[in-house]
Specification:
With 84 residues, the protein is an alpha+beta fold. It has a single domain, classed as Cytidine Deaminase, domain 2. It contains 4 helices and 2 strands; from the N terminus they run ααββαα. The protein has a two-stranded antiparallel ribbon with strand order 1-2. It is elongated.
């Protein structure tokens, strides 16, 4: 789903007049960003904000240039490292 379409669905589902507060808006953005995670054990998303302006977004997973866990298997599971 297109990110902008998803955000419009969130806003319309609450009604245009009933706008969400900033904290809710940014938390829902972080949830959406977490869906890009390449980790098969946990999905975390973050939104860096200053003065209600988004500076950056990020999510957890394999380092850039490395194969994803979904392709190679989870190294943490192979080493018996508990989740959390």
């Amino acid at each position: 789903m297109n990110v902008f379409l998803g955000m419009w669905i969130v806003l319309l589902s609450r009604g245009i007049m009933g706008r969400v507060d900033w904290d809710t808006y940014f938390m829902e953005m972080a949830y959406l960003v977490s869906k890009r995670s390449t980790c098969i054990r946990r999905h975390h998303g973050s939104v860096l904000v200053r003065d209600n302006r988004i500076l950056a977004t990020g999510y957890n997973g394999s380092a850039s240039g490395y194969k994803h866990c979904s392709e190679t298997g989870c190294i943490l599971e192979k080493l018996n490292i508990p989740s959390g």
